[in-house]
Each structure stands twice: as structure tokens, then as C-alpha cells.
């Protein structure tokens, strides 16, 4: 069996930035995802297509196929008026809503008495990612998983 759309894939991985610093790794437990549903970055998903259990791959994912290019327009100021004394610390992630009612996350990058400086780019936007991946398991997705677009854990999944 090889990785195709609707496969449940288990991988171990290490991902590094362009300086060679480790950004994330799977540690003892493999990451399990449903292939073809956008549950991992597109560049990695494309590179894993067609691999089978035991395969290893070194994959370089450019920003456009990872977390996107860094967009300076996604940095903005938000007045602190009305927030009281509970201002989030620098580095905190806050959940906001745009004028269309769509929720998004932004990170606090600076604070002053009148406003917060926020950055709504993904923390890895603009970063080229370097993955070392091993496929550890592979199976066909269950009908319920395919309908929901993600893997369900042991004992099923409840929405």
C-alpha cells in the first residue's frame, strides 16, 4: 500500500529551519493524519504521496507550500481602550474576529499604554522548512474519518 488520498498515515519527523535549528519533532509518538485533506502543510503532503511504510524522506518545503510568505500587512495596532488591566503579555496569542465575523489568531509583539502591536502571520510564515520523515504506518481511512476530513483516535471520535 502507498500513500494516496484517503490514507491514514503515521509518520515520525523532525523539522528544522534554514539555520538548522529544530522547530518541532514527533518524539516518541508518531503523528497520524488523513492524507489529502490539508491536515499538514501542502509541500510535505505532496512529497509523501506514493511512499509506503518504512520509507524515509528529506523534504524541503518553501514558504509558499508551508505556512505562506510573511505579509507585513498582517501586522497591525489595536487600541487598548476598553481592555482594562488584563492586557496580554508580549508573545501571547490572542483570538480576534474580523469585520466579517471570521476568527483569527494574532501574536502580541509589543505593548504600550495606548495600543497592542499584533502580528497575524503564522509564526513560521516566510520560513523554509526542512523535514526528515519516516512513514511508520499506513491504512485506509474509515468512512467516518473521510466524512469528517480527519483521523479519529482509539474508541472513535465525538463532535
Give descriptors for this structure.
5-stranded antiparallel beta sheet; 159 residues
Outline the secondary-structure elements.
Elements lengths: L6 E10 L5 E4 L5 E4 L7 H7 L7 E6 L13 E5 L13 E5 L5 E9 L3 E5 L9 E12 L2 H6 L11
Antiparallel strand pairs: 1-2, 1-3, 1-9, 4-9, 5-8, 6-7, 7-8
Model description:
8% of the residues lie in helices and 38% in strands. It has helices at 42-48, 143-148; strands at 7-16, 22-25, 31-34, 56-61, 75-79, 93-97, 103-111, 115-119, 129-140. Strands 1, 2, 3, 4 and 9 form a 5-stranded antiparallel β-sheet that branches. Strands 5-8-7-6 form a 4-stranded antiparallel β-sheet, with no helix packed on it. The chain is elongated, with a radius of gyration of 19 Å. The mean pLDDT is 93.
Amino acid at each position: 500500500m502507498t500513500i494516496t488520498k484517503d490514507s491514514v498515515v503515521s509518520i515520525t519527523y523532525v523539522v528544522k529551519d534554514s539555520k538548522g535549528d529544530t522547530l518541532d519533532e514527533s518524539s516518541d509518538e508518531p503523528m497520524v493524519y488523513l492524507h489529502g485533506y490539508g491536515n499538514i502543510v501542502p509541500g510535505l503532503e505532496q512529497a509523501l504521496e506514493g511512499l509506503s511504510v518504512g520509507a524515509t524522506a528529506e523534504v524541503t518545503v518553501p514558504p509558499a507550500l508551508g505556512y505562506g510568505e510573511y505579509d507585513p500587512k498582517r501586522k497591525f495596532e489595536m487600541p487598548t481602550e476598553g481592555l482594562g488591566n488584563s492586557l496580554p503579555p508580549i508573545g501571547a496569542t490572542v483570538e480576534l474576529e474580523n469585520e466579517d465575523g471570521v476568527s483569527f489568531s494574532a501574536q502580541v509583539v509589543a505593548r504600550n499604554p495606548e495600543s497592542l502591536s499584533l502580528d497575524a502571520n503564522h509564526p513560521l510564515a516566510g520560513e523554509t522548512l526542512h523535514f526528515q520523515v519516516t512513514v511508520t504506518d499506513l491504512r485506509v481511512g474509515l468512512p467516518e474519518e473521510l466524512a469528517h476530513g480527519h483521523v479519529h483516535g482509539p474508541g472513535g471520535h465525538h463532535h
